[in-house]
Write a structure and sequence with these properties.
Layout (H helix, E strand, L loop, with lengths): L6 H9 L16 H13 L3 E6 L11 E7 L6 E6 L18 E3 L2 E3 L7 H11 L11 E6 L7 H9 L6 E4 L8 E4 L2 E9 L3 E2 L9 H22 L11 E9 L5 E2 L2 E9 L6 H18 L4 E10 L2 E2 L10 H9 L4 E3 L5 H5 L4 E4 L14 E3 L2 H18 L1
Parallel strand pairs: 3-6, 3-7, 7-17, 8-16
Antiparallel strand pairs: 1-2, 2-6, 4-5, 5-18, 8-15, 9-13, 9-14, 10-12, 11-13
């Protein structure tokens, strides 16, 4: 048996294994090297290993895999989950090689240190010394593909219903504060088909930009309706949000614009369905669609991610929310970003998002994980494993 790496050695190897997922084919990569690395380590600790290829029809690469490692036997238990991919990076904005771990100023710098390859290095250390003979329930470790784009790995895993843990912890960077609620996410492209022509004769064409201008006005009114009709004070942004993120149309100043696209991002509150948001959007665009028949359409850019909420059961002495608050020393909270939690929750288990590092570092140049997170995270994971697998 080869010697298992310590925390910094494991993190170094994980960061050095590129696994970028992107909707842009030039950036998109497979994650098999990371999965194989994790499989080798956890197999040495006595885990059984299951690697499955993830269907990824919208990606340029089919080289996408999930890993499920299992230690112990029986029903229930604890699932520790995270994604193995990272976002792309702008090397010019980094002060070091994003794919090389740098230990400086009591911080580990590198792409994925906190979002979220570091979590697997923590799990590995917490599992050293675990004796399967004393385990009453199993421990699972799940590493997924493509969380940063389609969440294809988590979707595929939830559909397979391969395991039924009692509880699941997704180790996204939350500063070790238990997250029990987050918004959903969906993105659509609104398209306007006009009629191009010479700019000197505007009556002979239909300017798609002018129609899109009217659409934008309606969308701004829709944002105001969201603020009036929906509110959840658990969030620091209490209403659903609508963001107009990208627009493209036309080709030259002296031509009537024949086509225009607007990409929008919608984030729903827990309790709101995709259908409800789409109804609002459809009703908003309906008068303009009737005014300009056949010219306005919209399509989904990516599969939507549901909102998430894990309720606290004060009468359950194994309530994950209560135990997470007790062990972490933090009260639970809500966040505005989306995670894999709603898909993992579909396994029928109590689910929270709880991990080391700050979300402020995620997707940023010079991403880092502070040394101060190491002992706290190790204590938390060891306590969770003790509570749900050994007691």
């Amino acid at each position: 048996m080869s010697t298992l790496p310590n925390f910094s050695q494991a993190l170094t190897q994980l960061i050095a294994s590129p696994s970028i997922s992107s909707t842009q084919p030039s950036w998109d990569q497979g994650n098999l090297k990371v999965i194989q690395l994790l499989a080798t380590w956890f197999e040495q600790l006595g885990f059984s290993i299951d690697i499955q290829q993830v269907p990824s029809p919208h990606q340029s690469s089919a080289n996408k895999y999930n890993l499920l490692a299992k230690l112990g036997s029986g029903e229930g238990g604890l699932l520790l989950a995270g994604h193995s991919d990272t976002v792309p990076f702008d090397e010019k904005r980094w002060q070091s090689d994003p794919m090389g771990l740098v230990d400086k100023d009591d911080k580990f710098y590198g792409l994925g240190t906190c979002d979220m390859k570091g979590f697997f290095a923590f799990i590995l250390q917490a599992c050293k010394g675990l004796d399967v003979k004393h385990m009453k329930k199993p421990l699972y470790v799940l590493a997924t593909a493509d969380e940063e784009t389609t969440m294809a790995g988590a979707r595929f895993f939830s559909q397979s219903q391969a395991v039924k843990p009692d509880v699941a912890i997704i180790g996204e960077p939350t500063n070790l504060v238990p997250v029990v609620m987050h918004k959903g996410h969906m993105s659509h492209r609104i398209s306007v088909e006009g009629q191009s022509g010479h700019s000197s004769k505007p009556n002979l064409g239909v300017n798609a930009i002018e129609i899109m201008y009217q659409i934008i006005g309606e969308l701004i009114s829709l944002k105001e309706k969201f603020n009036l009709n929906y509110n959840n004070e658990a969030f620091d942004v209490p209403a659903p949000t609508l963001n107009m993120g990208a627009i493209k149309g036309g080709d030259n100043a002296n031509r009537i614009c024949g086509h225009c696209d607007l990409d929008i991002d919608l984030r729903s509150l827990p309790g709101m369905s995709d259908d409800e948001l789409l109804h609002w959007l459809s009703e908003t665009l309906k008068p303009l669609a009737e005014k300009h028949p056949g010219r306005i359409s919209f399509e989904e850019l990516h599969p939507s991610s549901p909102s998430f909420e894990q309720e606290k059961n004060a009468h359950d002495n194994q309530c994950l929310v209560s135990i997470a608050e007790e062990i972490s020393g933090h009260s639970c909270c809500a966040v505005n970003y989306a995670t894999e939690a709603p898909f993992i929750q579909q396994l029928g288990c109590q689910t929270i998002v709880l991990g080391p590092g700050s979300i402020d570092q995620a997707h940023q140049p010079n991403e880092f994980l502070a040394h101060s997170e190491i002992d706290k995270t190790n204590v938390l994971l060891v306590n969770m494993i003790q509570r749900y697998c050994l007691n």
